[in-house]
Amino acid sequence: MNSAVAPTPIFHRIRIVLSHTSHPGNIGAAARAMQTMGFSRLVLVNPRRFPDPQAEAMAAGAADVLAAVQVVSSLSAALAGTVLAVAMSARRRELAVPALWARDAASEAVAQAASGEVALVFGNETAGLSNEELAQCRRWAMIPVNPEFSSLNVAAAVQIMCYEMRLAVVAPGLPPAISGAGQPASHEDVERLVAHLEEAALGCGFLDPASPKRFVPRMRRLFSRATVEQEEVNILRGLLAALEGKGKFGR
C-alpha cells in the first residue's frame, strides 16, 4: 500500500495536549501513536510522572517525540498561540459547545492548521477533561465508540485522531481552503475578549459581581460556534473600549 507523504507544515502546526496524565506509559504510547502518523508536537499539562522509564519503553522508537515534549502547568499555557482547540470527551456536559464527530473535527483541525496553530486536547485516564478545561476549547469532539463499552485508552484515542487528521491531509479530492478569510484569532485573544466583556458587563451594572451566573462560559460557547477572526476581536474590543471611554482596549 502506498503511504502518501503529507505537507509537513500542517503536521508541525498541530499539537497533541495530554492533561493530567496519570500513567507515564500512556504518554509514551501516545508519542508512538503520533510518530506513526507524522505528528511530533506533544504538550503535557501537569503529568503525574514525567520523564519516566515507562514512557520511554512505551514510546518504542518515538524517542525524538518524547525528547521534544513541552511540560506546562495549565491548559491555558498549553493552548497559547492556537487558533483552534478541540477537546476530546465522551461525556456530555452542560453548557458544552456542540459536539462534532471525530472525522469532522479532524477535517476542521487540518483546515485551520493551514493558517495557524491547532491543539487536540485529551484528559486524564480516569476523569477525562474537567468542565473548565472543556470550556477553554472552541470545539468538542467524540469518537463513535460502542456505547455499551465506551472506555477508550488515551493513547488509542490519540492514534485515532492522528489517523483522521492524516487522512484529512492526504486524502484526494479534499475541498480547497477558503479564500478571503482573515487571520483566525488566537486562544489568548479570544480569552482576553471574554474577560473584557465580563469587565464591561460588571462595569455597566449588567452583571451582578456577587452572582455572575454563567456569563463567561456562555460567552466562550458563543465564540466557539464560529471561527473568530483577529480583526473581529479587535473591532469588538475597540467598541467596548470606546463605550467605556478608554483608549486602545483600556489595558
Structure described in brief:
The chain is α/β, with parallel strands linked by helices and 251 residues long. The chain has 11 helices and 7 strands.
Features:
single chain; 251 residues; alpha/beta; Alpha/beta knot; Helicase, Ruva Protein, domain 3; 2 domains
Count of distinct strands: 7
Structural class: alpha/beta
In the CATH hierarchy, the third-tier topology of the largest domain is known as Alpha/beta knot
Specify Rg, calculated over alpha carbons. Answer: 19 Å
- In CATH, what is the homologous superfamily of the largest domain? SPOUT methyltransferase, trefoil knot domain
Unreliable residue stretches: none
The helix fraction, in percent, is 40-55%
Outline type? globular
Strand fraction equals 5-15%
Mean pLDDT: 89
Biggest sheet strand order reads 3-2-1-6-4-7-5
Gross CATH architecture of the largest domain: 3-Layer(aba) Sandwich
Counting H and I runs of at least 4 residues, what is the number of helices? 11
The H-and-E topology, N to C, reads as HEHEHHEHEEHEHEHHHH
In whole angstroms, the N-to-C terminal distance is 56 Å
